[in-house]
Amino acid sequence: MDEQLTVGRVAELAGVSVRTLHHYDEIGLVQPSARTAAGYRAYSAGDVERLREVLVYRRLGIGLREIADLVNDQATDPVAHLRRLHTLLLEQRDRAAALVTAIDTELKERAMGIRTTPEAQLKVFGAQLYETIGSAYPATRRTDPRIAASIWGALGDARTVLNVGAGAGSYEPPDRDVTAVEPSAVMRAQRPAGAARCVDASAESLPFEDQSFDAAMAVSTLHHWQDPIAGLRELRRVARRVVVFTFDASDPGWRHRFWLTRDYLPEVAGLTAGRPSVDQLARAIGARMEPVLIPWDCADGFFEAYWRRPEAYLDEPVRRAVSVWTRVGPEAEQRAVTSLRADLSSGRWAERNSELVALDAAELGLRLLVA
Ligand SMILES: C[S@@+](CC[C@H](N)C(=O)[O-])C[C@H]1O[C@@H](n2cnc3c(N)ncnc32)[C@H](O)[C@@H]1O
Fold this sequence. Notes:
Elements: E1 5-6, H1 7-14, H2 18-26, E2 34-35, E3 41-43, H3 45-59, H4 64-71, H5 78-111, H6 118-123, H7 129-133, H8 145-154, E4 160-164, E5 177-181, H9 185-189, E6 197-199, E7 213-219, H10 228-238, E8 239-247, H11 259-264, H12 268-272, H13 278-285, E9 288-291, E10 294-295, H14 316-320, H15 323-328, H16 330-346, H17 348-352, E11 361-362, E12 366-370
Parallel strand pairs: 4-5, 4-7, 5-6, 7-8
Antiparallel strand pairs: 1-3, 2-3, 8-12, 9-12, 10-11
The chain binds S-adenosylmethionine (SAM).
């Protein structure tokens, strides 16, 4: 159906003034190309699509001239446009989440009579997510020996290994020649003395020649990459073998697999919307996929790690070391924690999840991609 909307109706729906729409029309940014039955100029479905794009870019603070270049880019198809908008919005949300965390911290510090230094007050504006949450990471995040065994096994006989999104160095094999890549200065600073050399770069643009390494690995990092497919192709370009530890959210019912997302934090689903599926990722580099079970006493405190130890999620340091909790925002976090606390004390959690007590390891969608 080709629906046409008048200028007034579009202004009302989009929450902008008719004057703004006229201005976009005059400068050729979005021109209503249809006519109503009464002969008035109207917006076609295509015009609305273009306007939506313009409005998202405006909300991201981009200037009109730059927006015109972006929306007139003929080389980019509508899906690629949407993906670009999606990535930019996620980045903006991450930046907002980082600011909320920083302000929360400052409020708590002020309540204790501690004044945040001028340097710390400004630092958060220049920071990416891990610049803000990264310092909480080492409290609970470390190599789990069983997951490490799967990753190291998949590296085969590789002697030189590139670890991308390396963070503080978990899972770096001690018996190989490792080079790390990590874009966050906060994370790089937390690498232990004697850890492998670490380069400041991102997966999407690796500063290495083709085939420089026997293998490239990426652990619990792919969901942070702006363009995961471009990043994986980079890994493929610089190494003969690629091993990625990631998460499968391709099955529409995935969030029901884990009680935390099913019963307490459904907002997690919004974090993966629009991202490439694990099948698309695997296809991009011709990888095979292997499930990785999470041991009940997993030593690496990632989001799913405490599936049989639910009380752990009530601990603030456990949550601060997992970006999901910051990305869903403080309201969802508090609601989930309050509700979990109540269900743990009433016995409702135990009732609903009685089958977990007998399990030593759980399949919660973690995957190893090996190419
Ligand atoms: C959850 S941590 C994982 C760190 C480490 N691999 C581990 O298993 O402990 C995710 C890391 O990915 C990094 N990261 C974010 N975006 C990236 C990108 N585009 N390329 C490479 N690393 C990135 C973050 O700075 C962060 O250190």
